[in-house]
Write a structure and sequence with these properties.
heterodimer, A: alpha+beta, 6-stranded mixed β-sheet, 6 helices, 6 strands, B: mainly alpha, 67% helix, flat
Chain lengths: 226, 63
């Protein structure tokens, strides 16, 4: 089951947001903590973040929200204006257990599902990431100057350099090569903009681990995603 | 005459040194108005200010 906020469906605002791809929720951090999903007595253990938004109070649910809050770079506190964004979905295996009246497990079923990864940070974080994303997107940006302004982008630029070398060797057609690099640049910028962790590419890696394609990633055995 | 409970947060905000002068002024004016109209306008204002913040800080994903 996907994570979601307990907002009414079909509201004009929601449709407006969907049209604009507005996936960053803004609001004042009112509360957060571990609780049973939707505060139901029989709900699965989960984690909630309560925001006071322009549309009123909204509660978001997701197990990963706990990690997102505790590992947040900007250390958001109650009362801060924060942004909340779903960034990736990981494939997991969910185990559903049926119990009898005494609480004994009577049957068990496994199914594939997705676990959402969240970013919860103060608004300043997203503003900074937006600036960094523009740097990466800007073809004319001088790399040295950009790295001086944002040292944390060094790995991103190294990754892009590697992609350029790869393209030079493997894509002889110049327009195709440029299209490929534009896609790489766009994907990197989008990832930075969303607040996903920055890459940590090292200059030399003598025994690189084989890279797994995202689609080939094996599902992890996890508890229910919500 | 007792003070209605709903006025207490407003009074607390008005006497709080951390509350900005702008907010105190807006709150004083709002308390004189029809409460439904005032809240409606406040929500509308919040929306406008959020859009402005998103635009100025380029917070929305351009994709």
């Amino acid at each position: 089951m996907p994570d979601y906020a307990d907002r009414p469906s079909g509201s004009p605002r929601r449709e407006f947001d969907a049209r604009r791809g507005r996936d960053l929720k803004l609001g004042r951090l009112e509360d957060h903590g571990a609780a049973r999903y939707q505060f139901r007595v029989k709900g699965d253990p989960s984690y909630y973040v309560k925001l006071l938004t322009r549309e009123g109070e909204r509660t978001y649910w997701g197990k990963d929200l706990e990690r997102a809050i505790t590992e947040a770079a900007t250390n958001p506190k109650i009362g801060d204006l924060v942004g909340l964004r779903r960034v990736t979905r990981e494939a997991v295996i969910v185990t559903s257990r049926q119990r009898d009246a005494a609480g004994r497990v009577t049957s068990q079923e496994e199914r594939h599902a997705h676990r959402t990864r969240w970013v919860v940070e103060k608004v300043s974080f997203f503003a900074e990431r937006a600036r960094m994303a523009r740097r990466v997107r800007d073809e004319q940006a001088d790399m040295r100057e950009s790295v001086r302004a944002h040292p944390e982008l060094k790995s991103t630029f190294l990754s892009f350099r590697a992609a350029e070398e790869f393209a030079t060797k493997t894509i002889p057609n110049a327009p195709d090569r440029e299209r490929f690099l534009e896609l790489i640049r766009g994907a990197m910028a989008s990832s930075i903009h969303k607040g996903e962790p920055l890459p940590t590419t090292s200059l030399r890696n003598r025994s690189p681990a084989p890279a797994a394609a995202p689609t080939a990633r094996s599902p992890k055995r996890e508890d229910p995603t919500r | 005459m007792t003070t209605p409970a709903s006025q207490l947060p407003a009074e607390a905000a008005l006497s709080d040194e951390a509350t900005s002068d702008w907010l105190k002024g807006a709150l004083r004016e709002a308390l004189e108005r029809d409460p439904v109209d005032a809240l409606n306008d406040a929500l509308f204002l919040a929306g406008i200010l959020e859009d402005r913040l998103r635009s100025l800080l380029n917070l929305d994903d351009p994709d």
